[in-house]
DNA sequence: CCCTGATTCGC
DNA sequence: GCGAATCAGG
């Protein structure tokens, strides 16, 4: 019957949250922060989720809470040489490197997966794959891997065309705003990602979205 | 260019 | 305590 043990919920004033100018770090919000940070979410993602705060605010809070380091099973291989000498130099590491071959980091961007109408269990796209050898290094939610499929010739043509304009970026350059369409063979030097601006809410650029998300109307009839 | 976290410092 | 500005890096 402790009525004041924590009174965590008594902090809510009589206002409902809706675009409040001053978001404070309520117990609830801090909880979310801890949870997401612990999960490896980025500060910007957390900030977006919480709303009303910037990633700077999130980072600042994280540090104040003393959770600057999210070591939780991840190797991290942190090389934390005591910062000194310069007032601004302790900048090294602390970034999730997808190239870590010692431990897969369960970092997921949470694929938005629009169009949830049809059970698109079978991926479809096939950007570029003359041979049958796909050995994706990272074991993360990469875009649907290629797979023989019938796609509108026009869509494919569009892809072929867009591939010429593709930025041809590397894995490191992938962001939520870059088309994540893989091209080529990961095992060769001829592998890259489209990198063009993605379509709102989708992981690929317009051209690749076209072939990635087939309504399945065009792909049915595949009996053999 | 986009992004990441780290730190500083005025509020 | 808070977070914008800044920094340092990928």
From TrEMBL:
<dbReference type="Pfam" id="PF07750">
    <property type="entry name" value="GcrA"/>
</dbReference>
<feature type="compositionally biased region" description="Low complexity">
    <location>
        <begin position="74"/>
        <end position="121"/>
    </location>
</feature>
<feature type="region of interest" description="Disordered">
    <location>
        <begin position="1"/>
        <end position="23"/>
    </location>
</feature>
<protein>
    <submittedName>
        <fullName>GcrA cell cycle regulator</fullName>
    </submittedName>
</protein>
<feature type="region of interest" description="Disordered">
    <location>
        <begin position="66"/>
        <end position="150"/>
    </location>
</feature>
<dbReference type="InterPro" id="IPR011681">
    <property type="entry name" value="GcrA"/>
</dbReference>
